[in-house]
TrEMBL record:
It comes from the Eukaryota. Keywords: Repeat. Binds amino acids. Residues 39-120, 129-206, 339-415 form the ACT domain. This is ACT domain-containing protein ACR. It comes from Musa troglodytarum (fe'i banana). CDD domains: ACT_ACR_3. One of its GO terms (molecular function) is amino acid binding.
Length: 449
């Protein structure tokens, strides 16, 4: 597995570093320009991956991007973001404003720290991360937790995504005996063998992998990289032209300006922009211009892109792959199914016990976020029946009885997103939105280079 974000080191020579030092990023945070959002303007020397990193900083602060205007042709990067907090309010908190300024207004962001390298033995001052990919199946997380518990490892933090019959997880663990990193090479080798056997399942055609890594990482960034590398975008049993609901992704040529145009319409949700930009960056595409607009339910994204080699999408196969990969990026962060949020005192083996109860009640985990802090466990699961159907009322009653003292939130979300409005052919869909965007993105007209 790669130890650094793809594309981060492009053109990262001494001259480029000098140019960035001479032209530090300029960040303007304006609470007067818009009635219902804080406007953040970022001007900087351009560099591949900078757009993704700026969006990452904003989303990591739990800010919601409601609109964005992107222009990064040539050597300069100029973006505008309308943001709110999770409650839809402007950003007035001086601590958050200061954090935005410090993160985006210096080399601390633009030229973001590289992700950690993989290794077999951990220095004691570095966290131990276990990265897993394999075939998804009911009860998988329960089995993973059982292996770690039996190996005397505590799960401190974890995130698991499932998509298209594949699963990826990043798990931070400590050694039960020391409370620190897992350093014993023999123990790590044993854990790797056990987890790989668990992950393989019955799918002989797809491989499973388990990697132990050192240092700090951005978990969600890694999950996108892992699932993309695992080709989760290859749909099982899908047929060309099959009727589908959200998301809708279309790719067309803008030959007069030598761009490819990507348009996405989907249900709006937190971190959507981050997710799509992760995949475009991993596929080595550069967003030169773009606009993002969200409503009460729908999100609209439009990007003018080229490959890092300067060329637009050149074949039908490449166009199809871009569509499939962006659909996967939108779908991975599933929020459908029964949302179960737990808070309780942390203890050894707690996660193994919780996942066992879920498995014994016939539930499969579609997505999970696990964390511990100051002796407390904070866990969120998105669940469905093993058949893929919504969780039945009697099953909800059963887990409520067994986990009732831990439950903070229990909400049934629709498993299938509402069907998107029908469009009168691809051309009408694309050009109608392009016309709409031309009025919103004032710099797009006549500014392409």
């Amino acid at each position: 597995m790669t130890g650094s974000c793809q594309g981060v080191d492009v053109d990262d020579d001494e001259y480029a570093k000098l140019i960035r030092r001479m032209n530090p990023p300029r960040v303007v945070i304006d609470n007067d320009a818009c009635d219902n959002a804080t406007v953040i303007r970022v001007d900087s020397v351009n560099k591949h991956g900078i757009l993704l990193e700026v969006v990452r900083v904003l989303t990591d602060l739990n800010l919601v991007i409601t609109k964005a205007y992107i222009s990064s042709d040539g050597s300069w990067f100029m973006d505008v973001f309308n943001v709110t907090d999770r409650d839809g309010n402007k950003i007035w908190d001086e601590e958050i404003i200061s954090c935005i300024q410090k993160s985006l207004g210096s080399d601390a962001c633009c030229f973001f720290p590289k992700l950690r390298n993989s290794a077999g033995v951990m220095p004691s001052n570095e966290p131990t991360f276990v990265e897993l990919t394999g075939t998804d199946r009911p009860g998988l997380l329960s089995e993973i937790c059982a292996v770690l518990a039996n190996s005397k490892c505590n799960v401190v933090k974890a995130e698991l995504w499932t998509h298209n019959a594949r699963v990826a997880a990043v798990v931070r663990v400590t050694d039960e005996s020391t409370g620190g990193a897992v350093e014993d090479p023999e123990k790590l080798s044993m854990i790797k063998d056990l987890l790989c056997n668990v992950l393989k399942g019955d799918d002989a055609s797809r491989t499973a992998s388990m990697t132990v890594s050192m240092g700090h990482t951005h978990t969600e960034r890694r999950l996108h990289q892992m699932m993309f590398s695992d080709r989760d975008y290859e749909r099982i049993g899908a047929t060309e032209g099959a009727d589908k609901s959200w998301p809708q992704v279309a790719v067309m040529d803008c030959s007069e300006k030598d761009y490819s145009v990507v348009i996405m319409r989907s249900r709006d949700r937190p971190k959507l922009l981050f997710d799509t930009l992760c995949t475009l960056t991993d596929m080595q595409y550069v967003v030169h211009h773009g606009t993002v607009d969200t409503g009460e339910e729908e999100a609209y994204q439009e990007y003018y892109i080229r490959h890092v080699d300067g060329h637009p999408i050149s074949s039908e196969a490449e166009r199809r792959r871009v569509i499939e990969c962006l659909e996967a990026a939108i779908e991975r962060r599933a929020t459908e199914g029964l949302e179960l949020v737990l808070r309780t005192e942390d203890r050894i083996g707690l996660l193994s016990d919780i996942t066992r109860i879920l498995r014994e009640n016939g539930l499969t985990i579609r997505r999970a976020e696990i964390s511990t802090e100051d002796g407390k466990a904070f866990d969120t699961f998105f669940l469905s029946e093993m058949s893929g159907n919504p969780v039945e009322a009697k099953t909800i009653d059963s887990i409520s009885r067994q986990l009732g003292h831990m439950i903070v939130r229990l909400k049934q979300n629709p498993l299938l997103p509402s069907k998107s409005p029908e469009v009168a052919g691809a051309a009408g869909f694309l050009f109608g939105n392009l016309l709409k965007a031309s009025f919103q993105s004032f710099w797009l007209v006549g500014s392409y280079s």
